[in-house]
Write a structure and sequence with these properties.
Length: 129
């Protein structure tokens, strides 16, 4: 993705100044659970499976991740967060991710759990609603 393009997470920043810096590893780890959630959504949008696996908790990480090339992620809405700040060890982010697949529109509504290990946030798991 072009670094000057709008970031897929819709933060209002460019990809290069927002999630792209986490994907490239130039900004260090995401400082909050929400920042990690946004960067993971953007990784789905740009097809960065390596970043998704690297930010998945070792306790629940799959051996591999195959992304569906037919899914186009369109919009991310953060509904709420619980904890997940710089001084927390766990956090929750509820979101709705909108997508298109095979011409149809869809949405993924998930409550995701995050944990901080060795000063890095990781995605643990999520419950879809």
């Amino acid at each position: 993705m072009d670094n000057s393009a709008r970031c897929p997470c819709l933060s209002g920043e460019t990809y290069g100044d927002c999630c792209g810096r986490y994907h490239r590893g130039t900004a260090g780890p995401a400082p909050t659970a929400e920042a990690l959630m946004r960067s993971r959504y953007s990784a789905f949008a740009v097809g960065d499976a390596d970043y998704l696996l690297a930010t998945w908790s070792p306790s629940s990480r799959p051996d591999r991740l195959d992304l569906d090339d037919d899914v186009r992620w369109q919009r991310l809405d953060i509904l709420r967060t619980e904890a997940g700040g710089p001084f927390d060890d766990t956090g929750v982010v509820e979101f709705v991710a909108h997508y298109r697949a095979s011409g149809d529109r869809g949405r993924l509504h998930e409550v995701s759990r995050f944990e901080k290990l060795d000063k890095r946030w990781y995605y643990v798991d999520g419950t879809t609603t």
